[in-house]
TrEMBL record:
It is an enzyme of class 2 (transferase). It holds the Pfam family UDPGT. This is Glycosyltransferase. Keywords: Glycosyltransferase, Transferase. The keyword Cell inner membrane does not apply. Its EC number is 2.4.1.-. Residues 7-234 form the Glycosyltransferase N-terminal domain. PROSITE patterns: UDPGT. One of its GO terms (molecular function) is zeatin O-beta-D-xylosyltransferase activity. Belongs to the UDP-glycosyltransferase family. GO terms for biological process: cytokinin metabolic process. SUPFAM superfamilies: UDP-Glycosyltransferase/glycogen phosphorylase.
């Protein structure tokens, strides 16, 4: 299936946070494989961020792929607050608000493309509805909303907002949304969702193998077609041409036994206070398990500007764990780490991007949610899919996770019968997901979407 004479052009409009930028960049890769040109729009800062951090492929030399850098007024880019009561990254709100200013240049691009393409397809993050609102005035433009969260978490959000109507499915208890968002971001969500009614359908980074029940419930409740096009990330990470191009942590992993290493990372929007970092550090050391810990502050609105806080470890800690652990202070290639055969577990915040990458690489998760959709993703991972264990229950979100709890959780995940069971479950789910891709179920979903947009 190809896009004859480039009669269709696709415009990607991501939300300016790493887990969002990354998913739409991976979606671009797959659309490009059908011979359809892709225009990826954003501020120059966030396009640069997406490009330098992408793993699994390089978009720059790909024919038909175009970054469009738009300018916005300079926005405040303060550091995160490690001691905030709500762990949602409120320091990013000025960045989120500033991106409304790309509405005008995005509209100009859409009109320009519409004059030479038979149809312009806009795929926009659900948090960028206001930016693409002018698409409705372009006769040959059509927009689709991309949801970066799990179908499970979105279903419960919609279901609860509708007053919990009767549905033909078992409804598990899910964590409350208390503490998941700041008041300002909740208002931001509500405002953006006002612009979603005009879309032609929705896209999810998931698959029916993982979330079939909740995809069906969402489609029935919303009355619009949806496409589960995941997993969007590459299922296999290509080898780098030479060791000088590999991150140093991968060289370290090469020396470790299969399934022996715990990967510890809490994503790009989480900042821990010094006391919690100390408890985590002591727990990891006392567990006597091999680990690689990516310890860095949450991203700022502009990751290239200003100084970054360096979280403090106990005195002499790095030397004290040098035989068992590696602490990484810079950006680390998560997909490549998870794909490495030495990785046997992932201590994670349960952001959906991380969940999908872990699922596709067959790595079980120790669930420690921080904010947003993460508490409900943790429920999906541990209770429904049974490919992880609970490290921190959302009901106790205001409590510190002690070194004793960390030690126990790490041993359970890495060195117990319980850990072996969830590791087996994760490996089996990985094979089912990969089989669904290989046998054409996912490609049929893709073909359905491409047929729709080039009709």
């Amino acid at each position: 299936m190809s896009n004859h004479e480039n009669s269709v052009a696709v415009v990607m409009v991501p939300f300016p946070a790493q887990g969002h930028l990354n998913q739409l960049l991976h979606l671009s890769r797959i659309i490009l494989s059908y011979g359809i040109p892709v225009h990826y729009v954003g501020t120059s800062t966030h396009n640069r961020q997406a490009n330098v951090r992408v793993h699994g492929w390089d978009p720059v030399p790909v024919a038909g792929f175009h970054f469009h850098d738009f300018q916005v007024p300079q926005f405040s880019s303060p550091p995160p607050d490690p001691d905030a009561d709500i762990k949602f990254p409120s320091h990013l709100q000025p960045c989120f608000d500033a991106c409304w200013h790309i509405r005008e240049p995005v509209g100009e691009l859409l009109r320009k493309l519409s004059s030479r393409a038979r149809r312009v397809i806009i795929i926009h993050d659900s948090m960028m509805g206001s930016v693409v609102q002018d698409a409705g005035s372009i006769p040959n433009a059509e927009s689709y909303t991309f949801h970066t969260v799990s179908a499970f978490s979105l279903f419960f959000y919609v279901w609860e907002s509708m007053g919990k109507p009767q549905v033909n499915a078992e409804m598990p208890d899910v964590p409350s949304l208390d503490g998941c968002f700041t008041k300002e971001f909740s208002e931001f969500i509500a405002m953006q969702h006002k612009f979603l009614n005009v879309n032609a359908g929705s896209i999810y980074n998931t698959s029916k193998v993982i979330e079939g029940t909740y995809l069906e419930l969402l489609e029935n409740m919303r009355g619009k077609q949806l496409w589960a096009l995941g997993p969007l990330n590459p299922l296999r990470v290509p080898e780098k041409d030479s060791s000088c191009n590999r991150h140093h942590c991968l060289e370290w992993l090469d020396k470790q036994a299969i399934n022996s290493v715990l990967y510890v990372s809490f994503g790009t929007t989480t900042t821990m206070g010094d006391e919690q970092i100390q408890e985590l550090a002591f727990g990891l050391r006392r567990s006597n398990q091999t680990f690689i810990w990516v310890l860095r502050d949450a991203d700022k609105g502009d990751v290239f500007r200003g100084e970054v806080r360096r979280p403090e470890l106990p005195n002499g800690y790095v030397d004290s764990v040098k035989d068992k652990g590696l602490v990484v202070r810079d950006w680390a290639p998560q997909l490549e780490i998870l794909a490495h055969p030495a990785i046997g577990g992932f201590l994670s915040h349960c952001g959906w991007n991380s969940c999908m990458e872990s699922i596709t690489m067959g790595v079980p998760i120790g669930a420690w949610p921080m904010h947003s959709d993460q508490p409900r993703n943790a429920e999906l991972i541990t209770k429904l899919l049974k490919i992880g264990i609970t490290v921190k229950d959302w009901a106790h979100r205001d409590e510190k996770v002690t070194a004793d709890v960390v030690e126990d959780a790490v041993r359970r995940l890495m060195a117990s019968k319980e850990g072996d069971e969830v590791r087996k479950g994760a490996a089996e789910l990985r094979e089912r997901v990969r089989q669904s891709v290989g046998e054409g179920e996912v490609s049929k979903e893709w073909d359905s979407f491409i047929t729709r947009i080039i009709r």
